[in-house]
Amino acid sequence: MTDHTLIPGKSRRPFFLRRGPMEMLAVALIALGFLMLFQPFALVLYTYSFITLLAGTLMFTIVSKFPE
């Protein structure tokens, strides 16, 4: 009988605790915040751009401390 949890290269951590995917999500959130900040069409997007940038930056700072 084989145990699939011991396969090399197979992470047992859930998706939201893996460093790589969460860093990509944080970078995407930062990019979305910049797009929201520099678009000239909707005031609502401009209003929430700083919060989006801040959330992405904080998320990247926290996630970058996760183990590989």
Protein architecture, described:
The protein is mainly α and 68 residues long. It has one domain. Helices cover 60% and strands 0% of the residues. The radius of gyration is 17 Å and the shape is elongated. The mean pLDDT is 87.
Reconstruct the topology from this structure:
Blueprint lengths: L18 H20 L4 H21 L5
Helix pairs in contact: 1-2
Structural class: mainly alpha
Unreliable residue stretches: none
Count of DSSP strands: 0
- Write down the Rg: 17 Å
Helix content: 55-70%
- Mass-distribution shape: elongated
SSE ordering: HH
Largest sheet: none
Provide the domain count. Answer: 1
How would you describe this structure in keywords?
68 residues, single chain, 0% strand, mainly alpha, 2 helices
Task: Explain briefly what this protein structure is.
The chain has 68 residues and is an all-alpha fold. The protein is built from two helices and no strands. Helix 1 packs antiparallel against helix 2.
